[in-house]
Design a protein that fits this description.
The protein is an alpha/beta fold. Helices cover 41% and strands 16% of the residues. The protein is globular.
Length: 413
């Protein structure tokens, strides 16, 4: 395995947080690179998912913590939840910055009212690699910020893939070991094993749910990733009841493998659906869950569109986490289904940047119709609209609306 560190988008954000706060919590899916990134900032490491190292912290977390050389990394804190209270007490005694760095692959306890980290730990999300990180352009300006500044057409990729190339990239995904270290059958085997571990061992740490039913529900989510699908469609297709489906969705979100993107609303628009869009956090998990390759995706037009949308969301999600504008992601669709916008980034001041994803190499004005409709209704709140396509060219499609290759999202130009 390569020892080369791949610079991440969050590196500067994490550095600033460690320099300003006593304790920082890095959260994200398993095997996303949290430990690899975090260990660069610490003097000692405790792997709490290893029973031998966890035993002392389970017995007396305060004493065990006091014996560590600071700054200390407490890896996979959820294996010994009591360590959080010990960190809280240590921070209450000494708020010097850079003392503790924690990582975790579970969200379950983070949102409870009694969580001891409130006010003591600064939380930073970490996502799978996006293509800007893969190609080594993590230090370039964020494409989200460039588009929001009205400079979308400056994002011209030097070498844009064709449609099969984008599908290959999506199925490769952004989990570092699979994306960078492996290829072919080895990558497929690793992703299948990863998914099995998440849906069995990791899930059972949070729930006693039937792993076979959970796997079936996840497969239905993979088929519907990036779609606006009713709850009943999901649970009926998976063969579970509504209560179980909701529990599964909450569990998968807690494991950071499912992102539920809410519907956007505004007083300037009426009759918008309120249903969320569900995305698998990494598009490689679509292929792993469905056991499908690029040829199979290209034969299925509906799945192709959903996979490309999931892939684009995976490019934008890490950008939003580091953008100074701190955009929140939404989708938009009218109740009659006549108009929809795949992704909408809400910036400060109620301004929006909207994205449509098209599996075409030659978009036309018709592909921007929904963006133009949104622009006319929002006026100055509409900062920019982008039709992301699978062709090589970037060009204008009207006032504040541009067509960009998907690869513009990792342009180094």
């Amino acid at each position: 395995m390569s020892s080369r560190y791949v610079p991440r988008l969050i590196d500067s954000e994490l550095t600033a947080a460690i320099q300003a706060h006593a304790a920082v919590l890095l959260v994200g899916p398993r095997a996303v690179g949290k430990t690899t990134t975090a260990r660069r900032y610490v003097s000692s490491i405790v792997r709490l998912d290893r029973p031998a190292e966890a035993a002392a912290f389970a017995a007396d977390p305060d004493a065990a913590l006091a014996r560590q050389s600071e700054p200390v990394l407490l890896d996979e804190w959820q294996a010994v939840p009591g360590v959080l209270a010990a960190v809280k007490r240590a921070v209450d005694d000494d708020r010097s910055p850079g003392r503790f760095l924690l990582t975790g692959s579970v969200r379950a306890d983070l949102d409870t009212e009694t969580w001891p980290g409130t006010g003591r730990l600064v939380r930073i999300p970490m996502y799978p690699l996006n293509e800007r990180e893969v190609v080594g352009a993590s230090g370039a300006p964020s494409p989200l910020d460039v588009i929001a500044d009205g400079e979308a057409l400056s994002l011209v990729p030097a070498d844009a893939p064709d449609l099969p190339g984008y599908v290959d990239q999506a199925l490769r995904g952004g989990l570092p070991e699979a994306a960078i270290e492996l290829e072919g059958r080895g990558r497929e085997r690793w992703l299948a094993s990863y998914l099995d571990q998440v849906l069995t061992r990791d899930a059972l740490e949070l729930s006693t749910r039937d792993p076979q039913k959970l796997a079936r529900y996840f497969e239905v989510l993979a088929l519907c990733s990036a779609g606006i699908v009713s709850d009943s469609t999901l649970y009926e297709a998976a063969g579970v009841d509504r209560k179980t489906a909701r529990a599964y969705e909450r569990l998968l979100a807690n494991l950071f493998v499912l992102d539920v993107v809410p519907a956007w609303w505004t007083n300037r628009l009426s009759r918008l659906v309120k249903a969320p869009k569900r995305y698998l956090v990494d598009p490689s998990l679509v292929g792993a869950a469905l056991r499908i390759d690029a040829a199979g995706v290209l034969r299925d037009g509906d799945l192709l569109g959903r996979l490309l949308d999931t892939f684009v969301a995976a490019q934008l999600r890490p950008e939003g986490a580091v953008s100074p504008a701190r955009p929140r992601m939404f989708h938009l669709r009218e109740k009659n289904g006549r108009r929809e916008v795949d992704l909408l980034a809400e910036l400060g001041g109620d301004r929006v940047v909207a994205f449509e994803v098209k599996a075409t190499a030659a978009p036309t004005g018709g592909d921007a119709a929904h963006l133009e409709w949104l622009r006319e209704r929002l006026g100055d709140r509409f900062v920019a609209g982008v039709v992301l396509h699978t062709g090589p060219s970037a060009f204008g499609l009207g006032d504040r609306v541009a067509a960009l290759p998907i690869a513009a999202l990792w342009s180094t130009a």
